[in-house]
Amino acid sequence: MSESTMSAAGEAPGLAAVSHTAAAEMHAQDSESESEESEMAEAPARDSAAEIPVTSNGEVSDSQEEHFKWDVKHMMTGGPTLKETRIVSSSYGNPSEGIIEAEPYRGGLKSIQSGPVVITDDISKNIALEKLEQVKKWSISTYKCTRQVLSERLGRGSKTVDLELESQIEILRDTKKRYENLLRLARQMATQFYQVVQTQRQLGDAFGELSVKSLELHEEFGYNAETQKLLCKNGETLLGAINFFISSVNTLVNKTIEDTLIAVKHYENARIEYDAYRTDLEELNLGPRDAVTIPKIEQSQLQFQIHKEKFDKLRGSVSVKLKFLDENKIKVMHNQLLLFHNAVSAYFAGNQHQLEQVLKQFHIKLKAPGSDGPSWLEEQ
What angle (nearest 5°) sits at the alpha carbon of residue 43, between those of residues 38 and 49? Predict the structure, then answer.
C-alpha cells in the first residue's frame, strides 16, 4: 500500500465525521430559516391593521393598499356580526371600560312566537264553535216561538193561561194608563199655576210702585200690593206640595209599576217558549217510535222540562211582585192624595198656617226665592 493510499484511508473517518457535523449544522440552519420565513410571512397579517407603510410622499403603495383591503375584508367577514356584539358596561375607572365583547346570539324569535300562535288559534276556534252553537240554539228557539205565536193568533195552537194572574196583569196595565193620565193633568195644573203665581208677583210689584208714586192712593195700592204678595207666597207653598205629589206619582208609575211590567214581559216570553216546546213534544209523541225518533223525543222532553221550570219560576215571581206592588201602591197613593187635598183646601181657604203645617207633615222643603225656574244648565 502506498503512502498516499494510507493517508487517504487514515483521513476518511475524520472526513466522515466532518461531513455529518456539517450536514447537521446545515439542517439546523434550514429549520431556523424556515421558522424565520414563516414568522416574517405572518407578521404582515398581524400588523397590517395596526401598521400601514407609506411611501416617502405619505401615500400608501399599491401592493400594500391591496393587502390592507384584503385584511379589512377578512376582519369584517370573519369577525362577529352586529347582532352578536354586546357592550360590556362597567363603572368609572374600570380598566375594561369601553371594551366590546362578541358572543353568540341566543334565543331566536321564531322559537318564542311558535307556541302562543298555536294556543291562540285553538282558543279562537273554540270561541267560534261556541258562538256557532249559540246561534244555532237561538235560531231553533226563535223558529219554535214564532211558529207558536202565529198559531195562537190564527186560532190553531193551544195556549197556557193562568186566569187569576192574567186578570191581575190586565188590572195593572189599566191602572198604569189611568195614573199616567192623572200625572199628565197634575203637571199641566202645576205649569199653569206657576204662571199665575208669577203674574201675582209682578202685579204685587206694580201695586207697590204705584203706592209710592201716587200719594193720594197710597193706602189702596198698598193693600193690594200686600194681598198679591201674600197670595204669591201661599201659591209657592201650594206649588211645592203639587210638585211633591207629581214626583211621588211619577216614581210609582215609571219606576215601580214599570219594573213589575218588565217582569211580566219576561214571564210572557217564558210562557211562549214553554208552549212552543210543549207543542213540539206533543207532535213527536203522536208520531212513530223508532231508532231515529226516540233520541229526538228524549231531547225534546229535556228541553220541555227546562222551559217548564223556567216558566213556573217566573210565574211565581210575578205573583209575588204584583202582591207587593198593590200594597205599595195603596200606601203611596193614600199619603199623596191626603197631601193634595189638604194643600189645595188650605190655599183656597186662605189658611196660611194650615198650608204650612201640611208641608211640615210631609217633610216638604220649598226652594229658595229666585230659584223657581230651572237654570240654563239644567235645561241643557
Answer: 150
Assign 246 to helix, strand or coil: helix
Q: What is the pLDDT of residues 159-202, one digit of tens each?
A: 888 999 999 999 999 999 999 999 999 999 999 999 999 999 99
Spatial distance between the Cα atoms of 225 and 229, rounded to a whole number of angstroms: 6
> What DSSP character marks residue 83?
G
Would you state the pLDDT for residue 337? 95
C-beta separation of 175 from 257 below 8 A: yes
Distances (CA, A) of 204 to 208, 227, 230, 235: 6, 8, 9, 13
Task: Find the mean pLDDT for residues 2-26.
Answer: 42
How is 333-369 classified by DSSP, letter by letter? HHHHHHHHHHHHHHHHHT-HHHHHHHHHHTT--PPPT
For the chain, the helix, strand and coil percentages under 3-state DSSP, each to the nearest 5: 80, 0, 20
- Rounded Cα distance, 202 and 69, in Å: 105
pLDDT tens-place string over residues 222-234? 999 999 999 999 9
Sign of the alpha-carbon torsion through 266, 272, 275, 278? negative
Distance CA 368, CA 179 (A): 30
Least confident of 7-11, 144-148, 319-323: 7-11
Neighbour-count burial of 317, counting CB atoms closer than 10 A to its CB (0-12 exposed, 13-18 middle, 19+ buried)? middle
Q: Which cell numbers in the block locate residue 370?
A: 229666585
Per the structure block, which three cell numbers stand in for 89? 358596561
* pLDDT score for 158: 84
Q: How many CA atoms lie within 13 Å of 41's alpha carbon, on the beta-carbon side? A: 6
